[in-house]
Amino acid sequence: MARIAQIFDTTLRDGEQAPGCSMNLQEKLEVARRLEKLGVDVMEAGFPAASPGDLEAVKTIAGIIKDCSVAGLCRSLEKDIDAGREALMNAASPRIHIFLATSPIHMEYKLKMTPEQVIERAVSAVAYAKKFCGDVEFSAEDASRSDPDFLCKVFGAVINAGATVVNVPDTVGYAMPDEFAKLIGYVKENTPNMDRARLSVHCHNDLGLGVANTLAAAAAGADQLECTVNGIGERAGNASLEEIVMGLKVRKDFYGIDTRIDTAQIYSTSRLVSQVTGVKVQPNKAVVGENAFAHEAGIHQHGVMANRATYEIMTPESVGIPKNRMVLGKHSGRHAFEDRLKDMGYTVEKETLDAVFMEFKVLADKKKVVSDRDIEALVMGAASSVPETYKLDRWVVNSGSALTATSTIRLQHKDGSFHEKVAVGDGPIDAAFKAIDQITGKDPDLESYELGAITGGEDAQGETTVKISWDGRFWNGRGISTDVVESSIKAYIAAINAMEWELSATDVAKGKREEAMKGV
Ligand SMILES: CC(=O)SCCNC(=O)CCNC(=O)[C@H](O)C(C)(C)COP(=O)(O)OP(=O)(O)OC[C@H]1O[C@@H](n2cnc3c(N)ncnc32)[C@H](O)[C@@H]1OP(=O)(O)O
Ligand SMILES: CC(C)C(=O)C(=O)O
């Protein structure tokens, strides 16, 4: 009988550590709900001690997610574990995840601790966490560059202190598959009481081997696999969830391992993560890339026409890539539209459905055929929008080779008032953004600006993604329109709204904490 490997998803923690991948609370919640639907066994929702915002996010997710464990990452420090405890107090199935480095280089230069001190600290941290949480994972950071005997000694000690999972991270993506499999086998054989804990792996992708190492470790006996959707994460990223899961599924004959993932949810989850982080999936990305199931060469097309299995080792449907279906256009009705949303993995409230359907009709008037990508952009716009402090009312932008770009922008504030400003800039987008800054009184840095077409064709919609920063924090905004200046303006306003919302939420949380402190 096949064994089951648990899938531990860390998109919301390690994934979020990737430059520019930070998500606001609303976005994290959306991703968390989708991960639950996907069927992950554990989701790591954040690092509660990192910031009040991260603590609130983990707390909110922990209060909502019921079908899988929710984990929070903590250093081996009581204050971090206390933050983890607070963040997870409402979780149906909480897991405190503690880490401490075990490699010579990390112990000497980063932690400035001796190996004996590391064992002592790891044990005391696990024992402390165990007082409030039955499920405690311990990760030996940089395990793949640690002495294997020392690693087994640390793991044996933390299992004795109550750890339920011990994790072997290839923190810097240094391991080679055969070598990593050997390490897993060694740890399994030589860790005292290993039968009392689950053995996990967490592989990074610095040499492009994150998935290969994870699969090799699974074959060698690891029974929890840590990964992220689309492989996002620190530096070159983490092992990608979709590649691990489909590797095990497609080659079940080889691995004999199952997961609980509903693979038909993979594609929509990948799209959601790409949309909320603003990080595009490369076209040739395995499993979820635009070209993953495309056949261009004649010999391949001929083979696929005779039998898809000649050149496809899995079907697009098995990962939730929809088949070509009814064309949606301006004559389509609500039933067909709702059906398509369901097929694409979206369950939306009636109110959102009404709003998106209206937008769909407006778009269908401009475009002959509304594609799945167009629909996805509409749903994401409606579902992920943070409260709108500002809404675009109207705009005019003049630009050309012989005149300075000028913009007039009118925004409506949530209190109902209208605000209009005129600005000049280096080009139409700069002029528009400057007018918006004048209205909002904020002057964030524009970190990145990306413009693309959602689909091909002359009537394609423009999709703009902007990332802004202020005081070391980042916010994304997305805008779509058949006019690229308008999509840019919408994206910038969306990012400003996310910033306004997060800053005011942090102020409220800070106020509450200060209030509570007065009573101590
Ligand atoms: C491999 C990984 O992915 S680990 C997770 C990495 N993720 C993150 O770092 C994101 C969240 N981090 C943060 O927000 C901040 O780094 C914080 C809040 C945790 C700490 O911030 P600061 O107090 O300013 O410390 P800073 O980040 O500069 O340095 C880290 C400190 O933690 C110590 N430390 C590092 N790992 C551990 C650990 N596992 N257990 C205990 N202490 C640790 C370091 O030795 C250093 O200690 P020092 O301040 O006494 O020199
Ligand atoms: C905290 C651990 C699991 C980690 O992220 C790493 O070592 O890469």
Automatic annotation (TrEMBL):
It catalyses: 3-methyl-2-oxobutanoate + acetyl-CoA + H2O = (2S)-2-isopropylmalate + CoA + H(+). GO terms for biological process: L-leucine biosynthetic process. Residues 5-267 form the Pyruvate carboxyltransferase domain. GO terms for molecular function: 2-isopropylmalate synthase activity; acetyl-CoA C-acetyltransferase activity; manganese ion binding. Its EC number is 2.3.3.13. Keywords: Acyltransferase, Amino-acid biosynthesis, Branched-chain amino acid biosynthesis, Cytoplasm, Leucine biosynthesis, Manganese, Metal-binding, Transferase. InterPro entries: 2-IPM_HCS-like (IPR050073), 2-isopropylmalate_synth_dimer (IPR013709), AIPM/Hcit_synth_CS (IPR002034), Aldolase_TIM (IPR013785), LeuA/HCS_post-cat (IPR054691), LeuA_allosteric_dom_sf (IPR036230), LeuA_bact_synth (IPR005671), PYR_CT (IPR000891). SMART domains: LeuA_dimer (SM00917). Mn(2+) binds at residues 14, 202, 204, 238. Residues 391-520 are annotated as: Regulatory domain. Pathway: Amino-acid biosynthesis; L-leucine biosynthesis; L-leucine from 3-methyl-2-oxobutanoate: step 1/4. Gene3D superfamilies: 1.10.238.260, 3.30.160.270, Aldolase class I (3.20.20.70). Its cofactor is Mn(2+). GO terms for cellular component: cytoplasm. Homodimer. Belongs to the alpha-IPM synthase/homocitrate synthase family. LeuA type 1 subfamily. Catalyzes the condensation of the acetyl group of acetyl-CoA with 3-methyl-2-oxobutanoate (2-ketoisovalerate) to form 3-carboxy-3-hydroxy-4-methylpentanoate (2-isopropylmalate). This is 2-isopropylmalate synthase. It comes from Breznakiella homolactica.
